[in-house]
Design a protein that fits this description.
Strands 3-2-1-4-5-7-6 form a 7-stranded mixed beta sheet, with helices on both faces. The longest helix is centred in the first third of the chain and has 18 residues. It has about 240 residues and is an alpha/beta fold. Strand 2, helix 5 and strand 3 form a beta-alpha-beta unit. Helix 2 packs antiparallel against helix 5 and helix 7 packs parallel to helix 8.
């Protein structure tokens, strides 16, 4: 039902959609609804909402061309797997790390990965500020993404430590980001980054628009970042 819509949306980003991949999205949606009856994963439970507000929304990240060349990607605070898993379905060679603080959500994601026969996925149970202190994950990723509901200043401190020098942090934000950008500028600079681009993107099949805030990592993040969970809420 949504194959043509998804295929058209991806084509605009230079990507293709196979019947197998579309089938993976359908199964993902089924599992999301099944598991949502046991644990709180999403308030969006209708098929159209899942397809547009979760899957197609996540796939707007492909409108930033370097994502198509990335080898490693971490989704910080992934929740029900957005945007990381939809990106992985379309770009299966991507080495994906899904990080979340709740083990129940990771159990759901592991079942999705298994059912969809997706490989090269690392499921990490950790708070975002703790995971980046692990040498396995610090300064390691081509791309860090987050669709978590948090202001850009906080997201930058949580996500930039994961990104290698020359890589990118991509935040999926709402339509009004100007004030957040101004507030986050100092923190992003201290973390070794710089806002490279803000892309307004439209979600196919809806009237929704949002922004991809693209931050380039210019220097390694100083070791004092991220701060502790108590300190990180305070301005620098």
């Amino acid at each position: 039902m949504y194959f043509d819509l998804m295929a058209k949306s991806l084509a605009e980003s230079g990507q293709t959609l196979t019947e197998v991949q579309y089938g993976q999205f359908l199964r993902y949606g089924e599992l999301l609804k099944e598991w949502n009856e046991k644990i709180n994963l999403t308030a969006i439970t209708d098929d159209e909402g899942i397809m547009t507000k979760h899957f197609l929304d996540s796939l707007t990240v492909f409108q930033f061309p370097p994502i198509r060349e990335a080898k490693t990607l971490i989704d910080v605070g992934t929740g029900a797997g957005f945007p990381g898993l939809p990106l992985k379905i379309i770009q299966p060679e991507l080495e994906l790390t899904l990080l979340d603080s709740l083990n129940k959500r990771l159990n759901f994601l592991k079942e999705v990965g298994s059912e969809l026969k997706l490989t090269h996925i690392d499921y990490v149970h950790a708070r975002a500020e703790d995971g980046s202190r692990n040498p396995l994950y610090r300064d390691k990723f081509d791309i860090a993404v987050s669709r978590a509901v948090a202001n850009l200043t906080l997201l930058a401190e949580l996500c930039l430590p994961y990104v290698r020098k020359g890589g990118y942090f991509i935040a999926l934000k709402g339509p009004a980001v100007e004030e957040e950008l101004l507030q986050a500028e100092k923190t992003i600079s201290l973390l070794g980054g710089k806002v490279a681009q803000v892309m307004e993107v439209a979600v196919a099949g809806t009237d929704l628009k949002h922004n991809l805030v693209i931050v380039k990592k210019l220097q390694e993040t100083p070791k004092r970042f991220p701060r502790t969970s108590a300190a990180i809420k305070k301005p620098l």
